[in-house]
Design a protein that fits this description.
Layout: E1 3-6, E2 9-12, H1 17-64, H2 70-73, H3 77-85, H4 88-91, H5 94-107
Antiparallel strand pairs: 1-2
């Protein structure tokens, strides 16, 4: 009721301020709640995709691991295999022998850096 009759004069009454304030706060709260839910759904979707990608990557890595090479599992180990390949290796001084062994490991893919 916009017009209020008081005696002879009609006055304009103010609309109920508390109900309109309540509606504004209610709509703002519902909007913010919807925004928070949308953000949380986006985060959970991204997290699910990252977990799936990491799972696929680790499965590929496990499938691609060829296992130990024959030189690593042979009776005397890789060094003994290296020495048995060429009798000249046994005649080298220790320092040169180990330098040649390191090169041999690199060439045969036995170093961790090659995997």
């Amino acid at each position: 009721m916009l017009f209020k009759e008081t005696g002879i004069f009609k006055t304009v009454a103010m609309p109920d301020a508390t109900s309109s304030t309540f509606m504004i706060l209610f709509v703002a709260t519902v909007g913010l709640l919807a925004l928070v839910v949308a953000i949380l759904l986006g985060i959970s979707r991204r997290l699910w995709r990252m977990e799936r990608m990491l799972g696929e990557e680790s499965a590929r890595r496990e499938d691609a691991d060829p296992g130990p090479l024959p030189a690593e599992t042979s009776a005397g180990g890789a060094f003994e295999t290296f020495l048995s390949e060429d009798p000249e290796h046994r005649k080298l001084p220790k320092r040169e022998q180990f330098a040649a062994y390191r090169r041999w490991r690199q060439e045969n893919g036995l170093n961790w850096s090659n995997r």
